[in-house]
Amino acid sequence: MAEQFQNILIIDDEKAMRHMLRLVLEPHQYRVTEAANGVEALTAIERERFDVILSDIRMPDMDGLSFLDQPQVRNLDSTIIMMSAYGSVDTALDCMKRGAYDYISKPFKPDEVLLTLRKAEERQQLRMENQQLKTELSKQGQSFTTDRIVHSGTEMQQILQLVKAAANADSPVLISGETGTGKELIARALHGESDRTGEFLAINCSAIASGLLESELFGHMKGAFTGADREKQGLFSIASGGTLFLDEIAELPLDLQPKLLRVLQEGEVRKVGATKAEKVNTRVVAAAGRDLHEAVEKNQFRSDLYYRLAVVDINLPPLRQRPEDIILLAEYFLGELCRKEGRQMLRLSEQDKRQLTSYQWPGNIRELQNYLEKALIFSSGETLELPPLRLRQDVSLSDNLADFSLKEAAQRLEKEYIRKALDRTGGNRTKAAQILEISLRSLMYKVKEYGID
Fold first, then answer.
1. pTM
2. How much of the chain is in helix, strand and coil states, percent to nearest 5?
3. How many angstroms separate the Cα of 261 from the Cα of each of 100, 168, 183, 248?
4. Do strands 102-105 and 312-315 pair parallel, antiparallel, or not at all (unpaired)?
5. Radius of gyration over alpha carbons of the chain, in Å?
6. Cα(57)–Cα(80) distance, integer angstroms
7. Which positions does the record annotate as the modified residue 4-aspartylphosphate (predicted)?
8. pLDDT, tens digit (0-9, with 9 covering 90-100), for 288-314
């Protein structure tokens, strides 16, 4: 029985497809509503709330992509999964950019639909558990400070001293650095070292459609646009008294940049559809993974907003420029992973250390952490087995473009990991599910889908 998603809307112009999906889903205790196109679907979502929406792309009157673009759909908290017999990787990416959670190519097996729903349920459950954990930590008064940032080099020490010095100022802070260098950790440390008693909230400016971002940041009034059936507080208001972290600030749409500048200058926000502004006391910390100077020169980012954000400018060095921190970070991550898995502490050999320090780590700290996690999964006994870094990619790409299928590559990698996990646990599927960090039910579906003995 479905644990999270129960009420499902199926949008497809083919009656036979809707009937087939109903036959697949209803035995698993899903309640199914049907719509023949996007127009009918809009009427349905006005009548009731759906946990998940399965939508075809090619339909008359209103197709699936147009349905995704509707304001009332963008404002839904439903999980949307798209379907098409004419899709490609570009089509799938387009659906994701418009807010869809996943994409299924037709024709598909019934188990594939069920598996996609199970994965979405697990994702929703993890999000709920993560939010509960954050709430609990907030109640306990725990905060992230500079003492929890692993380092040994003088450059990082100077950066953390700057964080402490700037923590209690109200001025905005701009954190720059490559992907994976720990920009959000520095933002959390700025909040944790401050006297601010409000929340720390984070938003990725590149992950939310521009049409929704203004409402997310500033809020909206009831009736401000189609689908705005209630007043909504924006993140600036919710984080008043605390800190708002704006990640990927370089991707903030140009039409929103003057509105953000006004908040920084005046300390007030105006909800979409409101006639009056309200005062907020929100500390803004922004992060950029690319050069904002270059974005300003290309007229992609306002110069006045840049200088207002960069009152305090923190530039995080890439891991390749912090060789003295690589082993310290590796040992820290290894210890955390062993404790998490209930494993005996594994040590890095001298050869391991030479291998780790001789690599450039283009993905920085995040790549190092992921690499060690994979190494631990497939290490047995008391010896840590580090795969050669020159072979760190699990899926080798052929020079033939016909092989550049993300879906097939992901399936090959998933199948390989499942086989290795089962081999390591002697075929114990419960333990294999634990080290793969998926539910036993999902593992059973995948074993059946891939025909693994």
1. 0.58
2. 50, 15, 35
3. 31, 21, 22, 16
4. unpaired
5. 24
6. 12
7. 56
8. 988 898 889 989 999 999 999 999 999
